[in-house]
Write a structure and sequence with these properties.
alpha/beta, binds N-(aminocarbonyl)-beta-alanine, binds zinc ion
């Protein structure tokens, strides 16, 4: 099947340029300047021609931080690989990297097998895995080699959630030493969970049980302290470090300082930290529970610093940390005790649109939009140039985006399997029009044409930014 996308404005990290694109089978075959006239020849032999006049043509979004069917807080995140990747496709994301979870007392490889079981035959777009290490021991450390051999070379650890995922500094040090040896990346949930747990106990004892206290018991300083500690451990061991879901300006300062010294330290933030705030956690009638995630939403002043970090590349990636729990039955588990609210916010469907608002508002350029949402995630997690760029030989994961369309985000129209929208009523300029995944049209004309099982597993190479 050959497809020609013509008359569009091709976006890449270097900006926007008019171009025509030829897709042959699953791959991009050629990119040509419109004045070359090549598209006329291509169109004559094509099965399909997409007129992208006035539209952006950009590489499919890559969301490197999702949690489909993740066990958490006595329940599971509400999206399956089928519903979650379908929602991703609707929003112009054509690759996700999800976290396989090693429950304590089990092996990394059994966790990997379990995640393959959840995703195989279900995903609508391509997917890879990171591994969450919750049990550091000799056997687990050895298994990290096998994970890398199986295309999983990034390992998330937690300085938060004592008793669940928490790892001590000694355990982190050992895993980092191993990562350094094998070229793997350690991804860090950087919050001082030991101190936070004391603040939580105190708050509950004093009757401060509402969702907003999820935020007040996790102050930015405890994210900054943990971020600095993780950076220090990475420096001592030489391991590459990627800070996940960075939310606080003080944590960003620690990342920027490390990057200024040339250390292999990278960080992502998420749309919820750019567009939502502590005020949302304080919504009345338990509505704040919809906004409980860790690290928590911060006072609105942090947002300017995060946008600045995105412009300066101290923040390299925006991923969603998509971890949806329904308000009814799931978030409600924490009524009367905020510490029992399952942590997570849905968002896999809206990342590309929300970041486009950053372009509309003048926070980031068009090139930077593509870079933080697609190209850098691909390079950071060993998928480039198969993913993250529209160039001959790349997978034909392509989004045709109408920058002038208007839409309103709502639970009534989203496709995620969750009963609320964190962005309910938000007005967006721009909209995904057509999505190709490996050459196949999966979204067009407001309809889903994909299928469960179209998405395949991506064995990833090592991080492509290491110095
Ligand atoms: O609140 C969050 N972030 N839930 C998902 C798990 C994690 O820590 O990423
Ligand atoms: Zn986390
Ligand atoms: Zn997460």
């Amino acid at each position: 099947m050959n497809t020609v996308i013509r008359n569009g404005i091709l976006l890449s990290t270097t900006g926007a340029t008019p171009a025509d694109v030829l897709v042959a089978g699953e791959k991009v075959a050629a990119v040509a300047a419109p004045e070359s006239g090549l598209a006329d020849t291509w169109a004559a032999g094509a099965d399909r021609v997409i007129d992208a006049t006035g539209k952006y043509v950009l590489p499919g979004g890559i969301d490197v931080h999702t949690h489909m069917e993740m066990p958490f807080g006595g329940t599971h995140s509400a999206d399956t690989f089928e519903t979650g990747t379908t929602a991703a496709a609707w929003g112009g994301t054509t690759t996700i990297v999800d976290f396989a979870v090693q429950p304590k007392g089990t092996s990394l490889l059994s966790a990997l097998e379990a995640w393959h079981g959840k995703a195989a035959g279900k995903a609508a777009v391509d997917y890879g895995f990171h591994m969450i290490i919750s049990d550091v021991n000799d056997a687990t450390l050895k298994e990290m080699d096998a994970c890398v051999g199986a295309g999983v070379n990034s390992f998330k650890m937690f300085m938060a959630y004592p008793g669940v995922f928490y790892a001590t500094d000694g355990e982190i040090l050992r895993a980092m030493q191993k990562a350094k040896d094998i070229g793997a990346t350690i991804m860090m949930h950087a919050e001082n969970g030991i101190a936070i747990d004391q603040l939580v106990v105190q708050a509950l004892a004093e009757g401060r049980t509402d969702p907003v206290h999820h935020g007040t018991t996790r102050p930015p300083e405890l994210e900054a302290e943990a971020t600095h500690r993780a950076i220090t451990l990475a420096k001592v061991t030489g391991a590459p470090l990627y800070i996940v879901h960075l939310s606080a300006s003080q944590a960003l300062s620690a990342v920027a300082a490390a990057r200024d010294t040339g250390q292999n330290v990278f960080a992502e933030t998420c749309p919820q930290y750019l567009f939502l705030s502590l005020d949302d956690l304080g919504r009345p009638d338990f509505e704040g529970a919809k906004y409980v995630a860790s690290p928590p939403l911060r006072p609105v002043e942090h947002q300017d610093e995060l946008w600045r970090g995105l412009r300066t590349n101290d923040l390299s990636v925006v991923s969603t940390d998509h971890c949806p729990f329904c308000f009814k039955d799931q978030k409600q588990l924490g009524k009367g005790d905020f510490s029992k609210i399952p942590n997570g916010i849905p968002g896999v469907e809206h990342r590309m649109d929300l970041l486009h608002q950053g372009v509309v508002r003048g926070e980031i350029s068009l090139g930077r939009w593509v870079e933080i949402a697609s190209t850098t995630p691909a390079r950071m997690f060993g998928l480039y140039p198969r993913k993250g760029v529209i160039a001959p030989g790349s997978d034909a994961d392509i989004v045709v985006y109408d920058p002038r369309a208007r839409q309103t985000l709502s639970v009534r129209t989203h496709h995620m399997a969750v009963d609320y929208s964190a962005y309910e009523g938000m007005s967006i300029t721009g909209r995904v029009e057509t999505v190709l995944s490996r050459g196949r049209i999966i979204i067009t004309g407001g309809e889903f044409h994909g299928r469960a099982g179209h998405g395949g597993f991506l064995a990833r190479d090592l991080c492509q930014y290491l110095t």
